[in-house]
Amino acid sequence: MIRQLAVPPFDRLEPFLPKPSAIDSATRSEVAEILADVATHGDAGVRHWTSKFDQLDLSPAEWEVPRSEWVAALERIEHELREALELAVARVRAYHRRQRDVGFSLLEEDGTILGMRVTPLERVGLYVPGGKAAYPSTVIMNAVPATIAGVEEIIVVTPPAGVTDAVLAACVLAGVTRLYRIGGAQAVAALAFGTATIPRVDKIVGPGNRWVAEAKRQVAGPVGIDMIAGPTELMVIADSTADPLWVAADMIAQAEHDEDATAWLVTTDLHLADQIAGAIEKHLTRNPRVAIARASLERNGLIVWVPSLADAVTVANLRAPEHPEIVTQDA
Fold this sequence. Notes:
By secondary structure, the protein is of the alpha/beta class. It has 12 helices and 12 strands.
């Protein structure tokens, strides 16, 4: 199912390395049309495109999910899931609290004061994907840093299918202030331009499909964005101490995002390389998103055997993955 490769020579990796992609003119023009429509017609434009792409005609009055529904979802989810979400929030908060920067000031000998003040944005929009799956993790990883920075209003938009109990519960725990069930480029447009129902934000963050990514690219400037995010990528660097079931689980956790996701294992241990395929199959038998995960691993997955960890570092530098994970005795 998943291909295997031995390096060096490192030029054997060439067919598997990402290539510069051509400009997708069709997506660019489609998104431009959606943005222009929402900028001109506001709520009516958002409703039109939501009905077209999500096959669900919701009036603007139905977009916002009342906070009472979030709280009910938090009480409704399984205790184990709630504990996991609470732990994730606590860990993300502890990490990002160390990043908080208030600036500095310098008093020169002549009395001149130089410095920098770092102040929070007033309102941010968080896009949470929800077309193929729901991502409470996206809520936590984006909303919690915003609360630590002191952002007053955090608005989540997600496709109607993405409004799950887990996402709603994450919104409560992570400090989200408002939530709307709209997605796609039309949701990005609503956040960027503002409508009668959706307030305009200062910055838009969060991942999405190619239409969402292109919409963020086109509105960047009048509104801030975090980055243009592509399909998710993981590379696990592992030695003989790694547990194959754990490594396989982490690879699947990325592969199940999307058929275009990438999950690689780079290992110095031939035994681990031989075990991974079986470990992946064992996990997939219980995975509800098996079709997507399997397609991703067959299309983009790779197991790379290297004679040393120094060679593993070379592979990592050549691939430059979004998420490198080191599972070795001496990380």
